[in-house]
Amino acid sequence: MRDDLAASHLKGKLEAPRFADGMLRAVVIGTAALRGKPSSYAGLDTELLCGERFTVYDEKDGWAWGQSGADCYVGYVQSPALGEPGPPPTHRVTALRTPIFPAADLKRPPIDFLPMNAKIAVLEQEGKYARIAQGHVPATHIAPAASWAADWVAIAERFLGVPYLWGGKTATGLDCSGLIQTALEAAGIAAPRDTDMMEAGLGQAIEPGAKLSGLTRGDLVFWRGHMGVMLDGVRLLHANAFHMEVAIEPVGGAVARIRNVEGDPRAFKRLQ
Question: For 156-185, how does the pLDDT look when each residue is reduced to its tens digit (9 = 90+)?
Answer without folding.
Answer: 999 999 999 999 999 999 999 999 999 999
